[in-house]
Design brief:
Layout: H1 4-18, H2 28-39, E1 46-50, E2 62-66, E3 79-84, E4 93-98
Antiparallel strand pairs: 1-2, 2-3, 3-4
Length: about 100
């Protein structure tokens, strides 16, 4: 069984090998799968949601929500994720920014 990171890099390689993807958004499903695989191991569980609505901080590529937020219908994630294309020095480069200081 592959680790979540191995699965992620395999998916990136396969997507890129098709030649049919675009620089950034074609890789979102692989990133969300990685974040959710890791989030399943955390206490409380963390869920990654892609393509968030604009809540005043632009449109992040994904948001991280704690399980405690699910029943409350929280529209703002604990953290937002913005990915960058492989044109940078690191491929892919991920930046996270805190959206709000909340306790899990």
């Amino acid at each position: 069984m592959k680790s979540p990171v191995e699965t992620y890099f395999t998916a990136l390689t396969e997507i890129r090998a098709t030649g049919g993807g675009v620089q950034e958004t074609s890789y979102y499903p692989a990133l969300i799968n990685l974040l959710n695989a890791v989030g399943e191991t955390l206490k409380p569980r963390v869920l990654a949601v892609s393509q968030l609505q604009n809540t005043g901080a632009d449109n992040p590529d994904a948001g991280l929500f704690a399980a405690s937020q699910f029943p409350k219908g929280a529209s703002e994630p604990l953290s937002a994720v913005n990915s960058r294309s492989h044109g940078s020095d690191q491929w892919p480069v991920l930046k996270t920014m805190a959206m709000a200081k909340r306790s899990m």
